[in-house]
């Protein structure tokens, strides 16, 4: 037996679903595998994820919950199938985004700790003991780039006859 919601999920009528077997729409279980699974279903239940082929050929991800019982001397199985295609897609996108963020985080370079700098010339002593220009030191250890310009004080001292400190 199948209800209207299940038939609609697969794109069939209820009557058409009744003419099919589970292995006709399940893409991961053949007849033998499915019959083996049903032997294990008890009142405790069996839950798993699989994929179903819809009438139009689409494949959807499905979460199946089965519970078994005896009714009128016959073993019966109640199965509930839920389309989890959107959830699986969201999980996949989330996982890809986390991977992308972790990769970006691994590429982030930061300067931290004490950096020995000359009080006069402003060169920085590297880990190997060499004195480097501050620009080179920072560029080698980060993704920062420098563009050189002059502050107003230095511009006036270096070029007193030129007006290069205007805001234009």
Automatic annotation (TrEMBL):
Domain of life: Bacteria
SUPFAM superfamilies: PYP-like sensor domain (PAS domain)
InterPro entries: PAS, PAS-like_dom_sf
TM helices/strands, residue ranges: none
Name of the protein described by the UniProt record: PAC domain-containing protein
Organism of provenance: Desulfosarcina widdelii
Upper classification of the organism: Bacteria, Pseudomonadati, Thermodesulfobacteriota, Desulfobacteria, Desulfobacterales
